[in-house]
Amino acid sequence: MLNVEDRMKRMAVITGAILMATAEALAQDQQAKLARRIIVSIPDRKLAVLEGGKVVKTFPTAVGAPATPSPTGSFTIVQRLVDPTWYFHGQVVKPGKANPLGTRWMGLSAGGYGIHGTNAPGSIGHNVSHGCIRMKNQDAEELFAMVSVGDPVELVAERTPELDEIFPPVIRAVIGPRPPATVVAQTLVPGSAGAGPGNE
């Protein structure tokens, strides 16, 4: 039978091992958070969440209209709100089905701009917002659960090699009046068809 001193030593070793494993897991979680970033391709009207350089999830979005384009550059998430209130030019719309921000708001360091849900899901896939990045409410809620204040967000206005890897160009076969054996592939260029406490 072990004496009290031997039992205490074994408990100390076990406790030390548990504490080290916990610290390592927390450090790995923190590293993953630091490696997480959000990229919005304005020409593709899509958003991707990357962790450790790998795409975790992509979502369709709506982006700024030609007259009110989305800002471009590197930003961070500075605010997260559930069921936000929308303020715009003296208008106030409380949470609910009429709210243009939908059910979630992720404010960006570009004042007044954010990533949010919408009460107009048919706008997704188009250039129609006042500069914000709109998502279907279900998608905004999923993204909201994945991100934190401080996460970097990149809004990119032109295709880059990185965007080509994240959002591969869509290729479609065009078969016309040519003989059936002739197939022409062409790249589809995204066409043109948002909102925050200060913008939408």
Which labels suit this protein?
14 strands, two-stranded parallel sheet, alpha+beta, L,D-transpeptidase catalytic domain-like, 2 domains, eight-stranded mixed sheet
Describe the structure.
This protein is of the alpha+beta class and 200 residues long. It has two domains: 1-35; 36-187, L,D-transpeptidase catalytic domain-like (Beta Barrel). Helix content is 24%, strand content 31%. It has helices at 4-35, 137-146, 161-166; strands at 37-41, 46-51, 54-60, 63-64, 73-82, 86-88, 91-93, 104-108, 114-116, 127-129, 133-134, 152-156, 171-174, 184-187. The strands form four sheets. An eight-stranded mixed beta sheet has the order 3-2-1-12-5-8-9-11. The longest helix is centred in the first third of the chain and has 32 residues, at 4-35. The model is unreliable at 182-196 (pLDDT under 50).
Task: Show the helix and strand layout.
Elements: H1 4-35, E1 37-41, E2 46-51, E3 54-60, E4 63-64, E5 73-82, E6 86-88, E7 91-93, E8 104-108, E9 114-116, E10 127-129, E11 133-134, H2 137-146, E12 152-156, H3 161-166, E13 171-174, E14 184-187
Parallel strand pairs: 1-12, 4-10, 9-11
Antiparallel strand pairs: 1-2, 2-3, 5-8, 5-12, 6-7, 8-9, 13-14
Structure summary:
The chain has two domains: 35 residues; 152 residues, Beta Barrel (L,D-transpeptidase catalytic domain-like). It is 24% helix and 31% strand. It has an eight-stranded mixed beta sheet. Strands 4-10 form a two-stranded parallel ribbon.
